[in-house]
């Protein structure tokens, strides 16, 4: 495996841009995805659809996370401005009202004859995009958010005793979930509906689709575990905290400590190591959630018109193990 120092990555494909028509653009952003992908050399990964896309794409391996936080990283990427220029570092700042009325990438397409639409988490929702995902500047129509995302942190995971709890690791039966679906499946359906609806349109489109997984909690249909037998999961080689690490650089993962399955471990705060058996299960679940999103991306790409530029990226990721 070649040394990969990627921190953020991007796959870009141009499919048969034969005629003069302006190409459509499909931007896919996968929340908290790191390059745990076969095409980036991760042998624990099972990502056949992204691997296939990478074969006919430019694959960028030496690019960087704008910031290790969704909102400012996405605002940086989508305004093409570095965090140092934007001075935005949190979830609560909207660039138009705090720094400048900067044009975004989708807005630029919109102002140049494109129909633009956002599905799922593209801008970070909330204050950092003015509670509208920057509509109407960036998007031709109001944006779509999956209804079941409201259950993101609800107790919908079945524990060993059959009770519904709020777990970090949360494989589910889709039919038993609230509304009988999952957010990313709703987003896929909306994206397919949009692509079919735009098929005969004269205006080209810029469609952005933001998938929520593999962001925590790892909620995904059970079947994706089949691709990730626990005995195949290898632990990170560098799992110990360096003794000279400055405190400020330590993230004590306060979010996941509040999840039922992690609470049960009673890991000491702030440095207590995650037990190996749980580390394995977490890596397995992350990879299974990634396979789930890979499957949805495969289903989405079937509907993409040949005259389309496809870009696949993530918001902020770490080095592959
Ligand atoms: C910001 O830019 C948008 C789009 O170009 C424009 O419609 C709006 O008037 C601008 N707002 C300000 C305060 O300049
Ligand atoms: C943000 O939203 C508020 C409330 O809808 C609106 O009054 C304001 O003009 C928006 N900001 C910009 C820069 O468009
Ligand atoms: C199952 O129930 C037992 C007895 O109440 C409890 O000790 C145990 O922690 C529960 N297991 C889980 C995974 O919640
Ligand atoms: C697009 O055009 C084809 C062929 O004329 C037609 O069969 C199809 O129904 C049209 N689709 C839409 C969404 O209008
Ligand atoms: C698990 O590992 C075994 C032994 O290395 C390998 O033969 C098998 O294909 C792996 N299974 C999966 C699903 O990756
Ligand atoms: C959790 O760990 C602390 C020390 O780290 C210990 O005092 C406490 O008894 C433990 N609680 C349980 C339920 O094991």
UniProtKB/TrEMBL annotation:
Domain Sulfatase N-terminal per the UniProt entry, residue ranges: 23-317
Any one cellular-component term (Gene Ontology): cytoplasm
InterPro entries registered for this protein in UniProt: Alkaline_phosphatase_core_sf, IDS, Sulfatase_CS, Sulfatase_N
Entry GO MF terms: iduronate-2-sulfatase activity; metal ion binding
Xref: Pfam families: Sulfatase (PF00884)
Protein name: Sulfatase N-terminal domain-containing protein
Needed co-factor(s): Ca(2+)
Signal peptide: 1-20
This protein's UniProt keywords: Calcium, Hydrolase, Metal-binding, Signal
Keyword Transferase applies: no
Family listed: Belongs to the sulfatase family.
Presence of keyword Zinc: no
